Structures are given as structure tokens and as C-alpha cells.
Amino acid sequence: MCESVDEVTQAVLAKNDGLAVSLREELAGRGVMVVNLLSSPGSGKTELLGRVLARAVERRIPVAALTADLATENDAHRLARSGAPVKQLLTDGLCHLEARQLRAHVESWLPDATALLFVENVGNLVCPAAYDLGESLRIVCMAVTEGEDKPLKYPTAFGSAHLVVLTKTDLAEPAAFDAAAFDAHVQRVNPGVEVVRSCARDGDGIDTLLERVLAARDGGPVHRPPLAPHPHGHLHEPAGEDAQGASGLVARRRVS
């Protein structure tokens, strides 16, 4: 009997989840916390990460970064200016990262002293949202120029975020960005999640973001999103009011 596309997809995700669980445990044993950064292209994620890395280096925090793209090493060169160890991961056309790719680079490259590993995922809010990389913190970034309804359009990404970062806030007025509507949309798909407002150009929000990451690393409370990966791999489904708030989404993950 031929398997359906959905069955194949679920099998792929299940295999990835198993690898992610073991990788998270392995890295925790080494004292490494992984932060997975998701966004669409052009959100300012690379510039934001570069500023965060530079601030961490200034504070002598052992930090490193992996940046993923389909092609070119442009982002790795940009991030390396921070002074942190940086590695480019080329996906050869794949629109997302998977736990197996992260494991390979961790085993072959990650400096021994690393305490924080930032992973800049491929610019895409669809496929990357379905894949647990073994991260302990998932941060979704969005620029004000993308429109305040973005969380409703990509509820799986925003609904699985431990933290949301709004970027390019200096452009909010010319972009006619409705901040109140944005906040309401975020809370609809992910009740209680914190939104950090940032502007990489003038440094706003950089220290706040780094402090939130460090607090999580040090065992502080971390927001529990309705679509958080379960410790054993699969996503928790929203229930009750959370399910309604997330527009009744996702009985299970699907890859678009």
C-alpha cells in the first residue's frame, strides 16, 4: 500500500523530532543552549543578531552562531564582524533547517567553550516552524514593514515562539504600522508571549533581547507557547480558549 503524502510528512517530522530531543539533551549536558531565530526574508534578523552577538562578546559571554541560507556566505561574513565564532550552513535549496544538519555542524565545528548558540534559520516562516532543531528558545522576528497581520497569516511560527521580536521600529510611522493591532494579533495566536521592540540601527532592544536569552539560559521562567514542542518531540495542541485564539489551527504539523 502506498503511503499518503501526509503519512510521509509525519514520518519525516517524527524522525526529526527524535534527533532534536537527543540533541537538546546532549547540548544541555555540555552546557550549551540553542536559540532558534525565525523570520521571513528582509526582517532585519541578521543585523539584529549581529548586534546581539557583538554585545555578548563585549560582555565576555561564550557565544557562537550558525547562519543558514540556500546560497552565499554573505550573512556569515556580516555576523563575523561581531567577533563571535560564526559558521555558514548552506542548505542546497532546502527551505528550512533540520536537526540532523545542526547536529553535523555541532559535532564538527562548535567551539568547546560555547554556552549560547544562535541559529539563524532560513528566511521563511512556513517550513522552519515545523522543525524542532533541539533549541531551548525559539524567537520569531518580524519587521514593522511586513504588516501588523503577519501573526495571523503565519500562526504556526508565531504560535510556537517563546519570544517575539518586532524589528525596524524606526520605520513604524512611515509604514503606517498599527502597533495595537499587531499586539492583539500576537496575543491571539500566542497568549502571554512577550514582544520585544527593537531597532538595530540605534541599538534599541538589543540589551533587552540578550537579557531575556541569558535569563532563560540561567534557568529563569520561559514562556510556554500553545504550539511548543513537547519534551518528547511533538507539538502541544492548543486547547479550549487557546485553540480558539489560534484560530483552531494545527491538529498536527504540516509542511507547506
What does this structure look like?
With 256 residues, the protein is of the alpha/beta class. The protein contains nine helices and seven strands, in the order H-E-H-E-H-E-H-E-E-H-H-E-H-E-H-H. It has helices at 5-29, 45-58, 74-80, 99-108, 150-153, 155-159, 179-189, 206-217, 241-245; strands at residues 33-38, 63-69, 86-90, 116-120, 137-143, 163-167, 195-197. It has a seven-stranded parallel sheet, with helices on both faces. Strand 2, helix 3 (74-80) and strand 3 form a beta-alpha-beta unit. Helix 2 packs parallel to helix 3 and helix 2 (45-58) crosses helix 8 (206-217). It is globular and about 45 Å long. Mean pLDDT is 88; it is low at 231-256.
Topology:
Elements: H1 5-29, E1 33-38, H2 45-58, E2 63-69, H3 74-80, E3 86-90, H4 99-108, E4 116-120, E5 137-143, H5 150-153, H6 155-159, E6 163-167, H7 179-189, E7 195-197, H8 206-217, H9 241-245
Parallel strand pairs: 1-4, 1-5, 2-3, 2-4, 5-6, 6-7
